[in-house]
Amino acid sequence: MGSSAPSFLSPDSLVDDLAARIPDNVWAKAPVSADQGPAVWQDITWRQLRVAVDFTARWMENELGVGDGHEPIAYTGPNDIRYPIIIMAALKAGHKSFLTSPRNSLEGNLALLRTTKCTKFVFTPEFRAMGDGLAAAAPQVKTLQVPDVGDMLASASADPYESRFGGHMQDHETVMILHTSGTTGLPKPVYLKAGVLRGSVKNISLPTPEERENILVAMCKSPMLLTSIPFFHIFGIMLFSRSLYHQGPLVLLPAGKPPTAELLLEAISNTKPTALACTPSLLEDMCGISGGLEGLATIEHVIYGGAPLAQSCGNTITKVTTLTNGIGSTEAFNIPNMVPADPAEWEYFEWNPNVGIVMELTTDGDDSGLAELVIHRQPENDHQLVFHNYPDLTEWRSNDLYERHPSKPALWRYVGRADDVIVLSNGEKVQPVSFEKAIEGHAWVRGALMVGSGQFQTALIIEPHPEHANHGADEFLDELWPWVDQANQQYQAHARVWRSLVSITSPDRPFQRSPKGSVIRHATCRLYDAQIKLLYAMGNTTNDAQTHAAGLDLPQLRSTVRQAIRSVLGSRADALADDTDLFSLNTDSLQVLQIRQILSTTGILCAVRDVYQNPSVTRLAQHLHATLMSTANPAPTISREQLMSAMIHRHSNFAQPTTPLPAPPPRAQRSVLLVGSTGALGTHLLHCLLSHPHVGVIYALNRSRDATARQTASFREYGLDVEADLAVHPRVRFLTGETAQEGFGLGGEGYEELVREVDVLVLNAWPVNFNSALESFEGVMAGVKRCVEMAAGSARRAQVVFVSSVASATNYPAVRGRREGEGEGAVMVPEVFEFDNSLPERQGYGESKHVASSIIGRAVREGMLAGATVMRVGQLAGTAEAKGMWNTREWLPTLVKTSRFLGKIPTALGPALDQVAWVPVDLAAKAILDLSPLGSPTDDRSEGVLRCFNIVNPKPSPWSHLATIVQQYYAEQGLTVAAVSLDEWLEALKAVDETKAAEHADHYPALKLLDFFEGMKTGSEDGGCGFATEKGVERSATMTQLEPVGEPLMRKWLNEWSF
């Protein structure tokens, strides 16, 4: 950390110094007589604190011996002043305190003690059972009850206890040990270094922009701070450090009572604090009790952290006091941010610009704008506290996701974790895997998924085994409940599942799984998003109150179906008749899921496809009635080709233009509507359009409200220059809307301008979710249909350019086989669009691209569209000419980084990926425009033409060559990366020690994509699937000039990643 090795006065030595200089000043206000009746707060002076620390250090020496400076002593107790006392007494007696959470399970504590080689566990009387449990499970661990806090403070010893190891600590020395909450299954220890405390003290003076205040100033300089934060939590340690190194007295809540809003209000009234640090759930409770807001109004500054705060509550609190959102982690301590310039932006973070924070956009492709907080190591990084704890890292990934402010690109709001842990609304974290596995042990259960992020309680989604899917929901839950109850006993109260929050899935919608068969958590959560929301909304509905459907006749069933649909349609229900087509009322896929779930809560098993294929009250009721009456004769299975055909049919019933439109006169400057401009490809498409000599106005339509800010940030990241600020650029109009809505949700005037002016519509926006079923793209197809209708009815007879995917045709070899005269190697997909529904890859994403292309193709074939072009885009790589880094979350950067730390790289990637036909993203954008109607200098109006091009590299190169380049690159840095088979590489990855992987997850990101990499081994052995490019090369200068991916590009990307 820097060029020098500064020392730092340890906490225990600082207390000795303060007790000598200001003995009667107050360190903390601690409650006494709190178990019964009103609490009374007692001033604890620096003199008393030193006496308590010396008494406890002497007790440790007598009972546990003098430590060697490294030996840990684990401690668990209530949240009182014994935590700070134990920390400093352990240092004096030559030990390191290991602060364990009272919420840890026996398994979690055993794992922590084993990992830290800790053989001493001390506790207060309240945790006698925990100590006894550890003693029984691990006889080598000595367990001991600590003295009462009153005995510590009342010690009569006049002899100071001299520290066994001196008063100064080097940055690399451990002050104490904390632990994570166990997001990877079990909690992992974090060794808090002296450099972290020293750096955090300096960070209060970290420079900020003019007239802006560091949040640490507000936290550390307030005269009296009331806290509800436990000391075993990193936020509690920050406040402990504040009390010592800034001599800012703390006020504690009574440890013998639960931390309620009423208790917080009592503390405010009795101790008159000037600042408050507490959890969001307590603040929300304060907003709901009598006198709560009045109490908060007496405080100058409220700081919360650990979880999001309800927006309505935060907005209310900001009317009576200053509200600030704190941020930190066990690994990184405090992450410097600034007090909001506008109090209304209390829920947003604005990072101090000096700390090396990079907000790295995720690659979900859903236009969400989510980004992960990453800290890049700087040459002078004393203020980057995480690198004191982890000196070998070059960057630290928080695994926390944020969304950007809609109009202020420097502001970010926390939205959740990127990993599997469930963060409840009160900040409690739940590790769901053990619970799920316990439920999956039941013979009737194929899969179990615990959910609850952002909720106060967890819920459970159960996927039955197919042979048990015919059981009713009540029967199934009665059978399963003893297993749920048993699993509940192993979890704390906040993590237990209520009976009313268990939902059973239907066979038509299986969990999303990897090739190995494991459930893909995030994909399945997204798939069941509507059902999860409805489950919480209806969580108070008891099973006893649900209607049993078996006895319903057709009129009763029709009434039930009508009521379910009306409840979902809202204001549109007035237009619903029993024979009305639901999709004529703009019913979307989320609402279909809601209809299905509402019916299931009444005992009616209704599949999603039942609604799609019977889209009216009458037809759905008749179908469900027939199903109930003839369960012995189930409906035949519907093929994927039939599902695609039905979806194409549903979205090809176009609204015809009111009058035939004449061909418009040609013009040199054409207007373009770009749908989806903020992703990597969209950014380069927009830049190419701005540079295009024959393009005038560009309309950039995105769903996100902050598209302008995101676009500006993307242009800056890629080093793309334009002649004016994008926000006020004379040729760009940023529009916020949704293609699936009428008039794109723009309002009459905005939409009418598009209808008047647009010559070319480029449809680039698409949800990139390779695990979604085709049905989940229903709403997207509604948007495709509206794009077709807008272009067909436009004054300029706009042509459509659709950015498709090679996944829409990768089943071509299996369907068509090798063409006559085609040599060995990959079977080549021609540059022609075919309406054959068997061609796309067997996944919802590829199928959806084919369906959309078919809808557009039908419009051309029927004469509605003047013309259209389908661009099948392959693997997009990092840039070739522009700046900007290939996103490190994608599979190739992940493979390279992992290989660097494994010391091994695979020389083959399986049949589908061994031939590298990647196209740099900036060149792909140029090629798309070359091959679009804009590629001609004249206003090309070829009527009725449906073109198709394959945007892949016409000059593929072998992966084995690129792997050699990676080896050479690291060899030049003195690192050996051996060439191995894919199987050997996968085995080495799976053999990474669990503890090593948890502590250095940054080194092995491929662990998170293990299923994907294992899936590389599968595929055709006859050369796989290739894509013809002859027509594209003939028409596009960019395609003609594309070079194979070789050493120059590979080294460019390696240098940008700097792994």
Automatic annotation (TrEMBL):
Keyword list, A-Z: Phosphopantetheine, Phosphoprotein
GO function term, MF aspect, one: phosphopantetheine binding
SUPFAM superfamilies, per database record: Acetyl-CoA synthetase-like, ACP-like, NAD(P)-binding Rossmann-fold domains
Xref: InterPro entries: ACP-like_sf, Adenylate-forming_Reductase, AMP-binding_CS, AMP-dep_synth/lig_dom, ANL_N_sf, FAR_NAD-bd, NAD(P)-bd_dom_sf, PKS_PP-bd
SMART domains the record matches: PKS_PP (SM00823)
Boundaries of every Carrier domain copy: 555-628
PANTHER family xref list: ENZYME, PUTATIVE (JCVI)-RELATED (PTHR43439:SF2), PHENYLACETATE-COENZYME A LIGASE (PTHR43439)
Protein known as: Peptide synthetase
Organism: Staphylotrichum tortipilum
